[in-house]
Amino acid sequence: MTLLQVVVSGLLIGAVYALFSSGLTLIWGMMNVINFGHGDFVMIGMYTAFVIVVWLHGGAGWTGPAAALLLFAIGVIVYYALIRPVMRGPMLAQVLSTFGLALFIRYAAFWAFSANFVTLPEGALGGTVNLGGIYLAVPQLIAGGVAVALTVGMYLLLTRTAIGSQLLAVSEDRNAAMLMGIRPDRMQALAWGLASAAAGIAGALMAAIYPISPTIGETLVLTAFVVVTFGGFGSVPGALLAGLMIGVVQALSAFWFGPIYRDVAVYALFVLMLWVRPQGLLGTA
């Protein structure tokens, strides 16, 4: 029963990994841009939850929508102010731009919140739930359930709606999409907004589970890269599957070998996947 509880806990946190990684895979698959600031977008979502609950004494239910709106606006601004000018340049310019963005966000968080770890009060989302003998913390259960629902919703948006068809058309052929009356800049700005909003919601969900600090984005962006590569570039279902798998691997590694080995096992599995299937689980060769 203990082992089963560890696996379920890993699935729930893996669902949150999948949520913010699905945003990264949308950007990566649509524009072939590597956003090193994606983990820091998640960090902004975590601090948004902290500000609402601790500083403004608001309800925890407002943290997700507020983080989504804030990060959507930030994503659109970043696209027009930073990404669009460098997209036609060399790949190195894109990498350095997003890396500089990550550093700017990180040190702005140091200035605004200091380097100290902070947490949400236990009363914000407290308690445990007994599911057939498996005891799960309410914040973890809510985070996992919401993350799965939103990741599936993003997949349905991309595959079952007109906006999703336009986004995919721009990712396939920008010039052909323009001939069909689609505005690529508007679609790419929307993609950045959606990806950033997903990161913000994931951050708000994680704020009730993890301590918050300005440096947490460094770890999260590495996790997102692993999930995207493991699941397949540009595949939202692949990101969901890979996120769940990596969450379980982390949980089992921490349970069997100790918390220090949780990331070691993930990166070892990641290297093995690159050897065996470099296109990822659901990616195309």
Binned strand content: under 5%
Separation of the first and last Cα atoms: 40 Å
Instruction: Tell me the strand order in the biggest sheet.
Output: 1-2
Number of strands: 2
The percent range for helix content is over 70%
Name the structural class.
mainly alpha
In DSSP terms, counting alpha (H) and pi (I) runs of 4 or more, how many helices? Answer: 11
Average pLDDT figure: 87
Radius of gyration: 19 Å
Give, in order, the helices and strands.
Answer: HHHHEEHHHHHHH
Overall shape: it is globular
Ranges where pLDDT stays below 50 over 5 or more residues in a row are: none
Q: Major sheet: size, sense and barrel closure?
A: 2 strands, antiparallel
Summarize the structure.
With 285 residues, this protein is mostly helical. The chain is built from eleven helices and two strands.
Structure report:
- The structure is a single chain.
- The chain has a domain at 21-213.
- A two-stranded antiparallel sheet has the order 1-2.
- It has helices at 2-31, 38-55, 63-86, 91-113, 138-160, 162-172, 174-179, 184-206, 216-231, 236-256, 262-276; strands at 128-131, 134-137.
- By secondary structure, it is mainly α.
- 74% of the residues lie in helices and 3% in strands.
- The protein has eleven helices and two strands.
- Helix 1 runs antiparallel to helix 10, helix 6 (162-172) crosses helix 8 (184-206) and helix 9 packs across helix 10 (236-256).
